[in-house]
Amino acid sequence: MTDFFPWEQHTIFGAGLIGCYLGGAISVQGFQTTLICRVTTKSKLTLGFKLTDYQDHQAVLPKIDVQDDKQLSSPDSTVKKARFLWLTVKCIGIKQAILDIAPLVDIQTIILCCQNGLGSEAAVKQAYPDNMVLRVMIPFNVVEISPGHYHRGSEGKLTIEQTPQSQIGISTLVMALQSELLPISSTTNMDALLWAKLQLNLGNSVNALADIPVKAMLEQRGYRKVIALLMGECLQVADALDIKLPKVTVISAHKIPMVLRLPNFIFTLVANKMLEIDPNVLSSMCWDVSQGKPTEIEHINGAILKHAKSLNIACPANEKISDLIRQLSDIKSLTQEQKPPISAEVLLNWVSGK
Ligand SMILES: NC(=O)C1=CN([C@@H]2O[C@H](COP(=O)(O)OP(=O)(O)OC[C@H]3O[C@@H](n4cnc5c(N)ncnc54)[C@H](OP(=O)(O)O)[C@@H]3O)[C@@H](O)[C@H]2O)C=CC1
Ligand SMILES: CC(C)(CO)C(=O)C(=O)O
């Protein structure tokens, strides 16, 4: 059993949307917090920043300890070892992050992997076999409304994995970090919870191709039908693996595709909670595509395809949408019709193979 206490050093590695929101929410509670960011974002963050959420909670952080990746790797770095190392880079940044976090890690460091999708923690565990490595599920969306203003635009509790070794410490951590800006809980069944989140993240690729806010996307039945196709395949794979998906929205996992297929006027009535999202929310993949960055498609839709292959289950919709997202990395080679924004009708025809 490991004893650890919430007031020990929290370090957030990868100060982007989730990292800044999480780090800000921890720091504002009075816990020692350091953000590790890129050189290019340091000046913005050292001026302090602001957190808000969709329920009008807010906090202003006049000062927070920010170090950039160059300071971290410098031989005379004075950066403290982390007790809680929150890894908030994208899945595709994990390989490099594993090397770069070395100066922050000692035997006591607990590494908390906050990635969407499946499997990012495996490489971290392999690189740090003597450390406690726990997974974290982040259900809510964060956007940067203006430089240094991070906004949580949707509901849900950040959930930390509990293992037999971590139980007491994680329960104490959860109680201590709990706040209006950061609702938080823990689970002993992270595998199933991450599959349930994976199901929801199937909307990310559609959102990136639609190139409109999530709320506006969900208001169009054609996009919803595409998401329903992707989710149907995901559920088939999860069922074959005998994973029982916990309910992470008001609608249970197996009913979501059916609800998504409903005509607009019934959908608006049945799924009004689902539409309670800020109108400015964009999925993380939509940000990546609009900024020309690589996406997490291989860890989201790709994770389903990997399992499907080993189970011999066909997932044509996920295959098709993964191809469309991959093609965006060579945007110059695409026709106008293949570039976002892609209309709901066109996308539905492509994905359903019509
Ligand atoms: N955004 C959201 O609303 C949600 C995101 N998630 C998940 O959370 C994870 C983080 O997402 P998000 O916050 O959006 O990602 P961001 O890209 O906004 O943040 C990651 C940050 O880490 C930086 N970074 C990456 N590698 C390094 C490194 N080696 N050294 C220093 N800095 C580094 C990135 O810089 P650079 O860009 O220059 O590489 C970037 O600033 C993802 O897995 C995502 O799917 C989950 C739920 C919601
Ligand atoms: C919050 C959610 C589900 C969609 O916005 C997400 O995980 C993301 O943007 O990556």
Automatic annotation (TrEMBL):
Cited Gene3D superfamilies: N-(1-d-carboxylethyl)-l-norvaline Dehydrogenase, domain 2, NAD(P)-binding Rossmann-like Domain
Signal peptide: none
Pfam families with a match to the protein in the record: ApbA, ApbA_C
Domain of life: Bacteria
Keywords carried by this UniProt record: NADP, Oxidoreductase, Pantothenate biosynthesis
Substrates-to-products reaction catalysed: (R)-pantoate + NADP(+) = 2-dehydropantoate + NADPH + H(+)
SUPFAM superfamilies associated with the record: 6-phosphogluconate dehydrogenase C-terminal domain-like, NAD(P)-binding Rossmann-fold domains
Pathway: Cofactor biosynthesis; (R)-pantothenate biosynthesis; (R)-pantoate from 3-methyl-2-oxobutanoate: step 2/2
Gene Ontology molecular function terms on file: 2-dehydropantoate 2-reductase activity; NADP binding
Domain Ketopantoate reductase C-terminal span(s) in chain numbering: 189-328
This protein's GO CC annotations: cytoplasm
One annotated GO biological process: pantothenate biosynthetic process
EC number(s) from the headed UniProt entry: 1.1.1.169
Residue stretches making up the Ketopantoate reductase N-terminal domain: 11-163
Family designation: Belongs to the ketopantoate reductase family.
Protein name: 2-dehydropantoate 2-reductase
